[in-house]
Each structure stands twice: as C-alpha cells, then as structure tokens.
Design brief:
The chain has seven helices and seven strands, in the order E-H-E-H-E-H-E-H-E-H-E-H-E-H. By secondary structure, it is of the alpha/beta class. The protein has a single domain, classed as Rossmann fold (3-Layer(aba) Sandwich). The chain has a seven-stranded parallel beta sheet with strand order 3-2-4-1-5-6-7, sandwiched between helices. Helix 5 links the parallel strand 5 and strand 6. Helix 1 crosses helix 7 and helix 3 packs parallel to helix 4.
Length: 280
C-alpha cells in the first residue's frame, strides 16, 4: 500500500490536454471521499492559484474546500525543498502537483521521481498521441535508470473524448494506442468532451463534472487507498507514514527530451489533423 503523504503529479509534455482541470476535479473528488488534500501549483501560469483568487473574491474564503498554493520549482534545490516539506507535513493525506506542459528538465524529473502516481491526460489525436508517447518513453527510461528509487505508477486518462469524431482508420488507431499505452501504465475510462468540462472552480464542481470523471478517478483512488470506501468513514482510515525523511535525488540521464519513441509508441503526426481530432 502507498505510504502517505501521497504525491500525485499531473503531467504531460503536451499542453492543452486538461491537466489543470483534472487536477482540481480530483481534489474535489478526494474531498468528497473525506480525504485531506491540497494542490501545489507549479505551473508558471499559476492557473489554479489565479482561479482560486477569483473564487475567493466571489464566494469568500470560508467556502474554500482545500488549499491551493503556488510553488516555485525552477531548480533542483527548490524541488528538494518542496518535496521535503510535503514529507514533513502530516496535515494532508494527498498532495496534488499541477505542472505546466512538461519539459523534462532536471527540476521536473525530480518531481516525477518523487511522485507516487503520475497522471497523464491525453487526447485521441495523432499530434497528442505522438507527444504523449515520447513522454511515456522518457518515464520508462527514468524507471529503468532509477530502479526502485522511482516508485511512481502511471495513469493515462483519455480526456475530452468526442465519440462523434474520427474516421474508421483513426478509430482503429485510437484503439491501438490504448492497447500500447496499457503496456506502460493504466489507461482509465474515457472522460467525454462536454461544455461543463471546459469550466473550472476551486470551490465547487458541477455535478455533471464529477459524474464524468468518477470512473477514471476511482482507478486512482483504489490504487491509493485499497478500496472505494469513504476514507474518513472507513475502519481502515490509516495509511503507513513514509519512513524516508528526505526526497530522492539521483543522477539521471542528462537529456531525456532527445529520446525518440520506440516503434510501438511511434504515432506519426498528420498536418491535416488538429489537436481535437477535427480536420482543419
């Protein structure tokens, strides 16, 4: 079983796949389960923090269901300090980390190295599949290099999926991609593209949003807590505390960003396909 505090990082080198929205919705999902959770916003755009400020201005600070704080991680030392503070804080069972469209530089590799779960949203289109494949390959190389020092389990979420889009050959490619991705991590149920999923609130989610994301998030929750019971209502509402007092810092391959995806992860991009799968 995963020891707490649990670190769940939302990451993909491809931007625009819904990392921030899913990070916030997973926080709401965990709050509904009775879990003490917080978000650390490591994105330079500070999307979560800016949204939180707007929500407080509108609803008041007493309506806030979980903390959402900015975190500067421009170098390895700042990541080390951040992870050390997470390990030393007993107030939260789960810390969610929202990353930018991820370049695998040293600070970002250290975040991934110290995560328990890595959640990678993606779209079923050739451009996103190609970029996501490269990211998966980089994670695989990190795991091979670090061995037991990288414990993170990978979850891939097909996000904002529109079942009306896709030719027959594209649908076959999407299914092939799902099969291939499942060799490297857990591919969750799809999250449908609906207008409500384009919105974000750090105070209260829409009922339709939680209904759409629950099948995918149940997979993550089950991995962390061992059952789908309410955490605070469960007789097993304890998780073993992490014994390590320091973040894991290990020398890694200098530049994983130059890595080419292996043949089974190689999805060529199509210049006539947009990032949402629609012809230009």
């Amino acid at each position: 079983m995963i020891q707490f505090p649990v670190i769940v990082t939302f990451a993909n080198q491809k931007g625009g796949v819904g990392k921030t929205t899913l990070c916030v919705l997973f926080a709401h999902y965990l709050v509904a389960k009775g879990v003490k959770v917080r978000i650390l916003d490591c994105d330079r755009q500070m999307s979560v923090v800016r949204r939180r400020k707007a929500d407080i201005d509108r609803y008041g600070e007493e309506a806030v269901p979980f903390p959402a704080d900015p975190e500067r991680v421009s170098n390895a030392e700042e990541v080390y300090d951040m992870v050390e503070k997470i390990f030393g804080n007993q107030d939260y069972e789960v810390t969610l980390i929202d990353t930018p469209g991820l370049v695998l530089n040293e600070p970002n590799k250290l975040i991934l190295q110290n995560s328990d779960l890595i959640v990678t949203p993606f779209h079923y289109d050739k451009m996103t599949l190609s970029s996501t494949s490269t990211f998966i390959m980089c994670l695989d190389m990190m795991k091979r290099t670090l061995g037991q020092e990288m414990r993170a389990r990978l979850y891939l979420i097909p996000n904002l999926h529109d079942g009306r889009i896709g030719t027959r050959s594209e649908l076959m490619l999407w299914e092939e991609a799902r099969d291939i991705f499942s060799r490297y991590g857990v591919v969750t149920p799809k999250i449908s593209r609906v207008s409500s999923m384009e919105r974000i609130s750090t105070v209260m989610p829409l009922d339709q949003q939680l209904k759409l994301v629950t099948p995918a998030f149940d997979k993550l929750y089950l991995d962390i807590f061992g059952s789908l019971e309410q955490f605070r209502m469960s007789p097993k509402s304890t998780i073993e505390q992490k014994t390590t007092e320091k973040p894991v810092i290990t020398e890694m391959i200098p530049e994983l960003t130059d890595t080419d995806a292996p043949s089974d992860l190689n999805f060529e991009t199509d210049n006539n396909t947009t990032t949402d799968g629609k012809p230009e």
